[in-house]
Protein 1
Amino acid sequence: MALDLSTATAPVFTEDPYSDDNLRDPYPLFARMRDAGPAVWLERYGVPAFTRFDVCKEILEDYSTFISSAGAGPKNLHHEKSWRAQGIMESDPPIHTTMRQAMGSVISPRGMRALRNQFQQFADELVDRILDMREFDAAKDFAEVFPLRVFGDAVGIPREGRAENLLALGAMNFSTFGPDDERAKEYFRMGQGTNDWAMANCAREKLAEGSLGQQIWDCADKGEISSDQAALLVRAMLSAGLDTTIFSIGNVMRLLSVHPGEWSKVHVNPRLTKFAIDESFRLESPFQSFYRTTSRDVDFHGMQIPADSKLAVFVGAANRDPRHWGEDADRYDIERQAGGHLGFGMGIHQCVGQPMSRLEMDVLLTTLAARVKAIESAGDAVPYLHNTLRGWESIPIKIVPA
Ligand code: HEM
């Protein structure tokens, strides 16, 4: 059921968080939404929206009241058909629990340790390449190249067709977590056929021997999940794990290029790289917003929300909430304790691929930090406009080798 405006007691916002201007720079609007109250009413979309850290965390942790099986976007999948078979992100326990256990057993600390060497080899190669270039586009020549190679190889899909299909698939997939507007429709047009490509390459016989994809299928052999679920889990890796990591690498690179002092710190002590990464997940969260649906009538922070209502959770705003992070929440400070941010979500759906993207980023950026003395911006970065992903289309950068 859609929530009736007459039942909404929260401050009304007529502005559109998904407009070009607000996507280009979402933070002034996020600040106004947070200051207006724990909940605001987005008039254009007819949903309550949440932007404060504590409230977003409360929603994500209460998975039985704020459910995911009706979709993690504004469309209610209990009443409308999903564009594709629902996967782990759009499920509740007990279905969610079995899928989560299977995926968690594959993306395990042991599984990640086994990948480190092959990630390191390609990181060395890529860093050699950009050191030769000195001036390059950190989005296209660096951030995009690394996960496409190492993550694709780890999942075990063929190299051919990866770039053409998976980037468009990710953009289309993440569009479903925001409104079905012209921008989303355009990403859907560009993504035509890519879901079929991904599903065809998720089949057991297409996946490389010993790959993560094959290990998911082994869970089906052991009877832990069904064959349909195995294919959906491999697809989930491909559609959720690539764009997010690419934009995350770009976001750290951009932040460090405009904060050269922070780069000096990571160069002197590359072990600080992981703090630079976490602080950028907080400040520029790659997956900015998604939705939940109420499983019952709920009286929540002054709003009477009927059962079966959609609500928007803006983790990108929560991660800059000064009530939680202090008055300098908008500042990039790699010495801040940024752990506990909501960039990977929270609760039972918290990103299961997190150890994979952390490993990719840690290996690549630590290698770069050791070999590059200084980094600076070489022109205006061009933002990538997407309803739920935050990143850059182009990040011109100059580096000085150590
Ligand atoms: C830096 C990169 C990444 C970011 C920022 C990110 C962000 C997120 C967030 C915010 C969620 C929670 C969504 C919700 O609560 O509805 C999530 C869930 C998920 N992510 Fe990631 N993710 C990243 C990388 C990955 C990778 C590499 C994979 C696959 C290997 C992956 C697979 C998934 C899956 C399958 C879920 C659903 C988990 C569940 O429902 O239990 N993600 N991710």
Protein 2
Amino acid sequence: MSNGNRSFNIAICGLGGMGNWHRETIARIENLNLVGSFDIDPARQRFAEEHGVRPYGSWKELLDDPAVDIVTLAVPNELHRPLAIDALRAGKNVVCEKPVALSSAELRQMADVADAMGMVFTVHQNRRWDEDFLTARKVVESGVLGPVFRIESCVLGCRGIPGDWRQLPERGGGMILDWGVHLLDQILQMFPSDPLRTVRASVDHVTNELVDDGFYADLGFASGLAVHVEVGTSHFISKPRWMVFGRDGSAQIEWGCKGRIVRCTDHSKNDAVPIRTAAGLTKTMAPRTDDTIKEFPLPEVHSDVRDFYRNVMDAIDGRAKIIVKIPEVARVMRLMEAVKKAAESGETVHFEQG
Ligand SMILES: NC(=O)c1ccc[n+]([C@@H]2O[C@H](COP(=O)([O-])OP(=O)(O)OC[C@H]3O[C@@H](n4cnc5c(N)ncnc54)[C@H](O)[C@@H]3O)[C@@H](O)[C@H]2O)c1
């Protein structure tokens, strides 16, 4: 993926934690020039200046600058819709942080403006470039586990929700929107043509009453695949980042791609030495003997998250299709709404027919 020789000018709106990540990342991308930023916080305006970035005096001044080709929005979630619409109407291509909006209805308004203006509009679903995700997908696609029947994707921390706008529902707080948007997007990316039939879910309110500070969602796909997605912020002992279970083997994948694959080499050899516990005996749960089981390392994957921006430039130039497509983002938005509905009602939500 390359963007040829043409260079693009980009400006960042919101130079907080993630805005600064964009600043650092853009500095390492060929043919992408950071021409300025705007933040309502004077301290972040000074931060920009100290780091050699021009702080625009206002949002309007940034939008009025004809040199700006692309605007990256890294502001709190409730501002994504109005600021994206401003930028698109000003004739800018827009990279919006996740979650793209607070609802699928808001996203439709944004997408309509992007279409009307003919601008590139995409969302920073950067965790599509996470190597743990790419490893899990490669394991599934390789067939090494046989038909996969269950996947667990968990991100569990123990610090509660950061004490800022993320604690407020009207600002788009809560873990479904914060981390759920990544994990659900990854799963839908893994199985793009398997309709998602059912959603069951539950939310946690351990440290916060107003927004969910964790959730689980159980997804039932048309193929029979079951996926468990879980996010937590009060978990002092974690779980593996990924568990993938197939008929012929299992895989465990951690952050940083440590893990292993264990395969059954001979299903027919089924002699088991029962496990005896103080109160009983089980053959079913006895481990397999070494001659029918083999351990393998995980496949290697390499990714470069800068390809996100390279693709944006290529898409503006008409040389590539945008990777993070709005219909995919909309499907994830609808899924997050289904997760909330399932959690509130305690009932199974039927998601897609197809
Ligand atoms: N993709 C990822 O991996 C990832 C990671 C973290 C955060 N994010 C997303 O990035 C966005 C920002 O999160 P953050 O952690 O950087 O938050 P943050 O609070 O650290 O930064 C937000 C910044 O926006 C500024 N701001 C607020 N209102 C503004 C306005 N009207 N105009 C200009 N600036 C304004 C604030 O002053 C602040 O500096 C959120 O949407 C969040 O979900 C994405």
